[in-house]
Amino acid sequence: MDFWRFVYISLACITLGHEAAANMNFDVHIDKLERVGDTGEYFTYNYSYEKISEMKFNMGAQVQQLKELDDSYTVKALVARADLADGSEFEVMMDLQKPLCEWMRTIYKTYFYEELAKVSNFPHYDTCPLPVANYVMENYVLDTEPYSEMMSEGRWKMEMMLMKGDSVCSGISVLNTVKPKE
Ligand SMILES: *[C@@H]1O[C@H](CO)[C@@H](O)[C@H](O)[C@H]1NC(C)=O
Q: Which atom of ligand 1 is nearest to the CA of 59?
């Protein structure tokens, strides 16, 4: 659990929202969560979180963006799913890559901005290029309940990355397992 959980839960939401297994509850276990391609050249951050109830977390974060990011960068998001059985192959559910400004105006605007604007100084979706900046998010309450109802069982791989050409500048990769509650 950390700041980026917000990112992948949103990602999961995008993908799973429409094939929601209604009224079912699942246990979500994070098997692996790692930063990829990150040398600290683009971002540094610290975060804190506190569990306030079974499904709710109170989160804070400070993000320093160290380089201006223009439309020569792209944002890549990948979601893949495998069955629970050992050795099942991953099937790609979503694989999109958009130039940064377009990503800001579409995915970020629709799925991130409204929530973030209330609790942070994260940039407006029309901001592009993104200037060097310090961002602060405070007292963001993440309620995972609505998401858990949208999950479907399996092993999920989710990645979100900032790219320049073929190289990864900074990103996050999450592997988790979703099982029906026992
Ligand atoms: C991040 O670090 C700064 C400086 O040490 C501190 O003041 C701030 O409270 C920290 N923020 C979070 C969300 O942990």
A: 13
